[in-house]
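EI: anyone free to look at a 207-residue chain?
SC: sure, send it
EI:
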Amino acid sequence: MPRQTESRARLLDAALIVFRTRGYTATRVEDVCAEAGVTKGSFFHHFKTKEELAVAAAERFSEHADTLFAGAPYRAVADPRERLLGYVALRRALLDGPLPEVTCLLGTLVQETYEIHPAIGRAAGEHILAHADEVGAMAAAAKAACAPEADWSAEGLGRHIQAVIQGAFILAKAGGGTDAARECLDHLGRYLELLLPPVEEGRQAAA
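SC: here you go
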């Protein structure tokens, strides 16, 4: 990796850590440089402002998440109901670790910057909604298989799932630990099991 590209990558990876630990407003350029082990001159070679760094960090976080979910075991599950439940189970499993490492940078940025730094809020929000749409597509497949006559929308369920996950992160930060967040995702899993009866059960009910 060329040296300039490497230093930019180190700044972005440092930003993922520092923004999630300190928040956007409390983070200084010096904090990111110290975490990355680079000079301020190097920072300003790659980014004009801290805001520009945050927009790029949102993109990098989303790319990491996309790679993680693309290779996750639930992707290979044939049953659409079990695939959706597998996604929620993975999100629960990902809560193991220090809070700054397991919470969502995108949610943190949106909450803090949506009005005072709209470019950051917009970038982070777009990635959150795009992922919600992907989950909504999984929900659509599960609905078609298990509850085709239900009057709720798969898109709405995808966004509800993301709302629960983001809310769980807030509870984790408020309580200083992930126990409450895990409980939220346990409840979410049970809710989905009730909303999407197994195919055999659904067929019996329709008969």
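EI: The chain has a mean pLDDT of 93.
SC: 👍
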